[in-house]
Amino acid sequence: MIGYYIIIGGIALISWLVSSKLKRKFKQYSEVHLRNGMSGAEIAEKMLADHGIHDVKVISTPGMLTDHYNPAKKTVNLSEGVYNQRNAAAAAVASHECGHAVQHAKAYQWLQLRSKLVPVVSVSSGMSQWLIIGGLILGIANSFGFLIAVAGLVLMSFATIFSLITLPVEYDASNRALAWLKNKNMLSPQEYKSAEDSLKWAARTYLVAAIGSLAMLLYWGLRILGSRN
């Protein structure tokens, strides 16, 4: 189990470092005020309109960095630090979330696939590790214990697949956002660089999560299948 704790500790440390860096970047670029004077909500509404999307609402949601797009309700949910603010960080986040709305409107295949996996992952993620540990306790040499552990491994693989699919979805949303900001001359060169850097650090949080999920799957896979051999 030492290897397990090393992986968990390493992933937690890297995740904390990237998350802390993102928060510092968001705070830094929150001080870069937009020359156009538009709020995050206004930027989001304009990006949706420019893409011919009129059935998606832009609403405010409590918390910090709680921004997300809800495909079921068709809402772009912007946190309090984005909805009313008029800075580069708010512009980056608002346009990124609208990037997901554009993906939805254009039936972007990776977003569709991720949406289909959501109900599966919501159930499997909470069960997988318990099944694996249960199988190990029963004993891998025992056929019943081995089958339980493998079942847990299969369920864990869905979470890993989900995190890997999330990468192109998030990077594409950022690319759509930056392309629109640039093509519509929404930001000055300095503001654009700030928004671009914000989105790069936001994307790295998903990259760390995907690597961590893959590392855990490989660890348990080698542990279970290796012990069986």
Write the layout of secondary structure elements.
Elements: H1 2-29, H2 40-50, E1 57-61, E2 68-70, E3 75-79, H3 80-83, H4 88-105, H5 109-138, H6 143-183, H7 189-228
Parallel strand pairs: 1-3
Antiparallel strand pairs: 2-3
Describe the structure in your own words.
With about 230 residues, the protein is mainly α. Helices cover about 75% and strands about 5% of the residues. It is built from 7 helices and 3 strands; from the N terminus they run H-H-E-E-E-H-H-H-H-H. A 3-stranded mixed sheet has the order 1-3-2. A hairpin with a 4-residue loop joins strand 2 and strand 3. Helix 2 packs parallel to helix 4. The radius of gyration is 21 Å and the shape is elongated. The two termini are about 20 Å apart.
Q: Percentage of helical residues?
A: over 70%
Q: Hey, roughly how much beta strand do the residues contain?
A: 5-15%
Rg computed from alpha carbons, rounded to a whole number of angstroms: 21 Å
The N- and C-terminal alpha carbons lie at a distance of 18 Å
**Can you count the helices?**
7
Mean pLDDT: 92
Bulk shape: elongated
Question: H/E order of the elements?
Answer: HHEEEHHHHH
Give the structural class.
mainly alpha
How many individual β-strands? 3
Which blocks of ≥5 consecutive residues have pLDDT under 50? none
Strand order of the largest sheet: 1-3-2
